[in-house]
Amino acid sequence: MNFAYNNLYAESIHLTDREVPVNQPAVPFPGGTGGRRGSRAALSGAAAKRVERPAPLRQAVYEALIELIVNRTLVPGQHLVEVELAEYLGVSRQPVREALQRLQTEGWVDLRPAQGAFVHLPTEEEADQLLSVRGVLETHSARLAAERATPEDVEQLWELQEAGVAALAAEDVEGLVTANAALHAFISRLSGNTVLAEMIGTVDRRVRWYYTPIARPRGNDAWNEHAELIKAIAEQDVEAAGRIMTEHTGRTRQAYHERQAVAES
Amino acid sequence: MNFAYNNLYAESIHLTDREVPVNQPAVPFPGGTGGRRGSRAALSGAAAKRVERPAPLRQAVYEALIELIVNRTLVPGQHLVEVELAEYLGVSRQPVREALQRLQTEGWVDLRPAQGAFVHLPTEEEADQLLSVRGVLETHSARLAAERATPEDVEQLWELQEAGVAALAAEDVEGLVTANAALHAFISRLSGNTVLAEMIGTVDRRVRWYYTPIARPRGNDAWNEHAELIKAIAEQDVEAAGRIMTEHTGRTRQAYHERQAVAES
DNA sequence: ATCCGGGTAATTGCATACAGTATGTCGTCT
DNA sequence: AGACGACATACTGTATGCAATTACCCGGAT
Known about the structure:
By secondary structure, chain A is mainly alpha-helical. The first copy, chain A, contains 10 helices and 3 strands. The first copy, chain A, has helices spanning about 5-10, 55-70, 80-90, 95-105, 125-150, 150-170, 175-190, 195-210, 215-235, 240-265, and strands at about 80, 110, 115-120. A 3-stranded antiparallel beta sheet of chain A has the order 1-3-2. In chain A, a hairpin with a 3-residue loop joins strand 2 (about 110) and strand 3 (about 115-120). In chain A, helix 2 packs across helix 4 (about 95-105) and helix 6 packs antiparallel against helix 9. Chain A is globular, with a radius of gyration of 21 Å. Chain A starts with a helix and ends with a helix. Residues about 1-20 and about 20-50 of chain A have low confidence and may be disordered. The structure holds a DNA duplex. Chains A, B: Pfam families: FCD, GntR. Chains A, B: InterPro entries: GntR_C, TF_FadR/GntR_C, Tscrpt_reg_HTH_GntR, WH-like_DNA-bd_sf, WH_DNA-bd_sf. Chains A, B: This is GntR family transcriptional regulator. Chains A, B: It comes from Umezawaea tangerina. Chains A, B: One of its GO terms (molecular function) is DNA binding.
């Protein structure tokens, strides 16, 4: 049953965040085990992306598990048995455990001592709180983006907007979600605040997990609001950008609850 | 050299966040390995805290490492060799590795594939960004707290305030930092948003790491601002609470930079 | 002298083995 | 029949072993 081994590499080796493969600018640190790193002056300018590091298995496992959770193969509340995951992914328990550690701190699974990992089971209250936090972070990011966006950035924003509208017209739910994520991610990057952008990244990913089911009906309004937002950013209108983003995320939050209400009836 | 083994248990077994030792309300999950849990009707009402779970070593290691980082035993940029840490803490490499995973996602260390863990080396820019995000989160939390605080809560706030002022008078830097953390943590809990509170918790802890050196000079003003903030919360004045917190965190941020400027001269 | 090369030591990454703990089941006693 | 208790099983937690990669060191060539 370990067909997935290849799959794993073929599919999810886009080592996105974290796990920095770069070598730091050789800072001479005080304590340390002993300076083992020599200084190599040249080549410092070009931001050359080091190719093909031996991407650790834990990274691949981590991403594979998120994928399995998001697409509901692993359902909330499910007990994740380490050896099962390991066999399924064709690795040993070790990288699985390391991935689980990371998944825990990011809220995807809960680790119960001596009992193991369980796919996180979000309550409606928690989802609401997450959406609330998301609103605050996104608003801040929108304001900063409005301050700093260049015309080229705005150009890119419009392109992302078009992609989203196209997906909307094509009823491409998958594409819609992706486009939405891309737009918000780009704005967060425009903010120039890396810490903020990373935080939004993880929060949004979780939001998307809870929220995917309602992406469709909200689509129309959402992308109109996106257009408004881009306009505000283009005009560097900080207040407007912040206000629109607050409303935008607020409506998303509301849509979530309405959908919940329907789902329970 | 493994005297630290006892230390480790004696000192840092206050399993704070995460690692939920509670047994969930027995949700019947669809997939799962198979329902192994029986239902026990009685005793369900009383919220009895299950005592003394076998706290995993990784948890203790995690906390020990944070302590070592915060108190500068492990200096930023330092290469953390797994077997050294393991020997020092009196455990094997395994729990160390798991702790490092978690430390990475929370920004304490950087993991470079095939090279190991390095204590995170914060740039001034990053510290600024973190302080910026902190301001936003804390402001949100202050507003929510103002909405919901009961007179009893306000009472507690004043007690925390007194503790801080006392530490200030006694020139107790350690106590000052602790009191400050306690006050902010309490407010974040008052917000009623658990997700927000947790996020503030981790952000604040990192801020404290960067910021501890300047806690003293800023102390006086900070605690005056705290008093203002509590007043606003007591009057349930949401706008004022938010504004004061924004200013408060903004000043902290400014103080950080001024201190940096001094340090570099 | 500097740059390039091979060789060596050190360290990570992964796998496996063992021990401890919790759960489920069956039998027995009241 | 219900409840308690011992046994068996499954899974996690921890330790150890092995292979692969990396960084360092030193000698030789340019």
